[in-house]
Amino acid sequence: MIDMAKTTLRFAEIDDANELLQIYAPYVEQTAITFEYDVPTAAEFSKRIKNTKEKYPYIVAEIDGKIIGYAYAGTFKSRAAYDWAVETSIYVAKDDRGLGTGTLLYAALEAILKLQGITNVNACITYADQEDEHLTHGSVDFHKKHDYRLVGRFKKCGYKFDTWYDMIWMEKFISKHVVPMPAIKSIKEIEDEAERTLESLS
């Protein structure tokens, strides 16, 4: 069992792509948690990291230099009116789940998004009434534990492993909605404060 007291948080780098893929690949190949059919190449994954980091935090958790999980935010919708909302994603290495890594990553992610001025964090989650070999209710339970609430459900909209799955949206407010609303700060504008936040949570 890993010692969570030794967990370090930092921002992901492009060179982390191969290690992050080792965590992500089993989710693609063995679960319906992601609707990707094929594991992306390292080059494609590197591009995803780069694109995310241009606007939002992309955080990894590691112990003794080994990455055990990662979380990031992405655009919810591209129209300007949606600037204060993001979609979150989190993946923890299979052997390191249930030990608090996800909670630590989400705490850091939300803290930094709050510094940027984000109000709404949204999670898009695969769901089925009955658990099966490719999907449990673990992700829903995790988000409920972290004060996300169910706000929408799309029926039988994803097909993987010869099974039709639903998609649900869960949402959490992390900042106040005010009028007028201050403009979102870029990740570069809050870089120093964000680094201090990661250090304080590590």
TrEMBL record:
Keywords: Transferase. SUPFAM superfamilies: Acyl-CoA N-acyltransferases (Nat). Pfam families: Acetyltransf_4. InterPro entries: Acyl_CoA_acyltransferase, GNAT_dom. The keyword Transferase applies. Gene3D superfamilies: 3.40.630.30. Residues 7-175 form the N-acetyltransferase domain. It comes from the Bacteria. The keyword Transferase applies. GO terms for molecular function: acyltransferase activity, transferring groups other than amino-acyl groups. PANTHER family: ACYLTRANSFERASE FABY-RELATED, N-ACETYLTRANSFERASE. This is Putative Phosphinothricin acetyltransferase.
